[in-house]
Amino acid sequence: MSTQSGITPSSEFLGSFKKFVEDEAPILTAEIIKEVIEVGDVITATPLSKAFDALQSQLDDSTPKYIVVRHADNNVYTFISYVPDYAAVKDKMLYASSKNTLIRQLGSELFAHTLFLNSLDEVSYEHWKHSVSGGSSNALSKEEKALNEVKELELDAKIQSAQKRKLVAPTNSLNFKLHANAEVPVEEGHLYSFNIDLNTEEVFLSNSASLNDAKELPSLISRDYPQYNLLKLNGKTYFIFSCPSGSKVKERMMYASNKNSLINHFKQSNTIDKSIEIGDADELELSEFSNEKKVEEDQGHLKFSRPSRPGRRR
Length: 314
Known about the structure:
By secondary structure, the protein is α/β, with parallel strands linked by helices.
């Protein structure tokens, strides 16, 4: 259901998880730090009810976590995706889109149950025991599946709703603020490049350049990080979203989620003739920006004399 984020567990986390399994510890937590899944805590308190008490004291109502719970009577586990309602939207997106990758890498056969929790009150021994009491099958009961699907759909809906509200808001259509220098008059023969400052949460003008030929474009677009670009050339205005293959996962997600709302913002003061999305700058089809069609049309009206036959005077 969810798009995969590309975020994977670190080698240190995988080693810690292996030791967690060997030691038969009750609970392990994990978190996403700098686009990598890292181990949080290994809770060793027993019995499991006390381990849950210790777990709940370490959580809050705004920070997502992945939680692995060992069943006390056998060597199977429950995977819990804890994504509280008050978590930031971007964190909800990262955790929701990285969950399946993590489960696969740890070994999906280990997990008898997969739970999705969005309230701190649900992270309790009683709630967990009730959720997994439907039997020892490696598959969730129909009721559990339905509940988890509803919760994941609710999360997707909340994310999409938040994005749509920002998209249609007349005064604040962006997830991030727009810096004053980003309001530029788009002039013929100019490229304007914009980036997101993740620290100040602002979209700002990072560069502007004049050009005479589309061949200059690849050298003017960033090869290191995503970028929004406005170009006016040959009387047309283009929005170019570039997302280089070497850019960070979090940056790619942030830029992609803001793209449409930024286009809508620019459309309020400019006519956007075409929107183009590329990976690396070299992927640009330069013919998009040329006057070839006009040349071809003009050539279509030219008349050519038929060559004379050999040996015949005209």
